[in-house]
Design goal:
The protein is of the alpha/beta class. The protein has a single domain (about 15-220, about 265-300), classed as TIM Barrel (Alpha-Beta Barrel), CATH 3.20.20.100. Helices cover about 35% and strands about 15% of the residues. The chain has helices at about 35-50, 65-75, 105-120, 140-150, 165-175, 195-200, 220-225, 245-255, 255-260, 265-275, 290-295, 305-320, and strands at about 5, 10-15, 15-20, 55, 85-90, 90, 100, 125-130, 155-160, 180, 205, 280-285. The strands form three sheets. It has an eight-stranded parallel beta barrel with strand order 3-4-5-8-9-10-11-12, surrounded by five helices. Strands 1-2 form a two-stranded antiparallel ribbon. A two-stranded antiparallel sheet has the order 6-7.
Length: about 325
């Protein structure tokens, strides 16, 4: 599988990584009921096929995703274990109510909790999950994360869902190793501002939801959207409802001919497109089963030409799906 260096970290990561959001199971921002055994099998399958990093977060399943990832790691020989990226800043109470907490005290406590759940001594990439407009100055929060690097508990520090202003403020305190923004053919806004900022500051970019949370998986349907259970966050999301849903499904269908010409899936095509954006290092792709992993693995080596990108731009414009710019040439 292809690898790229994540910014200035020195970590060469595969251009697709295993995303464990769905591994957490049901919850306020969960994906519904999920088998832990199937999750572990999917992680092992991805690693066996060459994926060398896993992205998770404390809040996924309120700690459960990290526990499942930890179980998967414990069953692997140390030499075969992938890099582990996780996040802090979103916490929950005994009633399952989620909230932001970017106080230095919480960040330090969350790091220790994540290390325990994952069963590891050091986190390869520790990221602030999301900004908190009502929290302490971001300089204090970012400083606390950098202190974890100095303490040896964290190898590199990054952020997720930050805009340019916050990136500038963090960079003034200490280098931002990576950014994790959403990016897909439906959600393209990051290509206009934060990804160019990262390219200019030697900051790696690992994008999430390259298949727009399943809408560009190649298997999504209006019937499936209507049947999403209440414990699946997508049942409440506007992109999964009319009129956006119809445009998104039209885009999914319009991508099929190009995917077929490449002998690949719509999922791999949509994911590969995100990695052609200048400044993007890699894409996080979720999976519940080993079969789903096989559905996107070849995105890592899928060659998209300038003509392919023009065709993709055309079908996006024709369907009217999504929002944000459509950048041009592949890396």
């Amino acid at each position: 599988m292809r690898t790229r260096e994540l910014g200035s970290t020195g970590m060469a990561i595969t251009t697709v990584g295993f995303g464990s959001w769905a591994v957490g199971g049901p919850g306020l921002m969960g994906w519904g009921t999920q088998s832990d055994d199937e999750s572990i099998a999917a992680i092992h399958h991805a690693v066996a096929r060459g994926v060398n990093w896993i992205d998770t977060a404390a809040v996924y399943g309120f700690g459960h995703a990290e526990e499942v990832v930890g179980r998967a790691l414990s069953a692997l020989p140390p030499a075969d274990r992938p890099l582990i990226f996780t996040k802090c800043g979103l916490v929950w109470d005994e009633h399952g109510v989620e909230s932001n907490d970017l106080t230095p005290e919480s960040i330090r406590r969350e790091c220790d909790d994540s290390l325990r759940r994952l069963g590891i001594d050091r986190i390869d990439l520790y990221q602030i999950h999301a900004p908190d407009p009502n929290g302490p100055p971001i300089e204090e929060s970012w400083g606390a994360v950098l202190e974890l690097v100095e303490a040896g508990k964290v190898r590199h520090a990054g952020v997720s869902n930050f805009g340019v202003e916050l990136l500038d403020r963090c960079e003034a305190v200490g280098h931002v190793a990576s950014l994790q923004p959403p990016l897909s053919l439906i959600h393209r806004d990051a290509a206009a501002d934060v990804i160019p900022w990262c390219a200019a500051h030697d900051t790696g970019v690992i994008v999430y939801s390259p298949m727009a949370s399943g809408l560009l998986s190649g298997t999504f349907t209006a019937e499936r959207a209507a049947a999403l259970p209440g414990d699946d966050w997508r049942s409440r999301a506007s992109e999964f409802r009319s009129p956006q849903l119809e445009r998104n499904l039209a885009l999914q269908d319009a991508l099929r001919p190009l995917a077929e010409r490449h002998g690949t899936s719509v999922a791999s095509l949509a994911t590969a497109w995100t990695t052609t954006i200048p400044g993007v290092t890699a894409a996080i792709v979720g999976a519940r089963t080993s079969g789903q992993v096989d559905g996107w693995l070849d995105a890592s080596a899928l060659p998209l030409t300038a003509e392919d990108l023009k065709e993709i731009t055309t079908v996006v414009n024709e369907t009217g799906a999504g929002h944000g710019p459509l950048p041009g040439e592949p890396l």
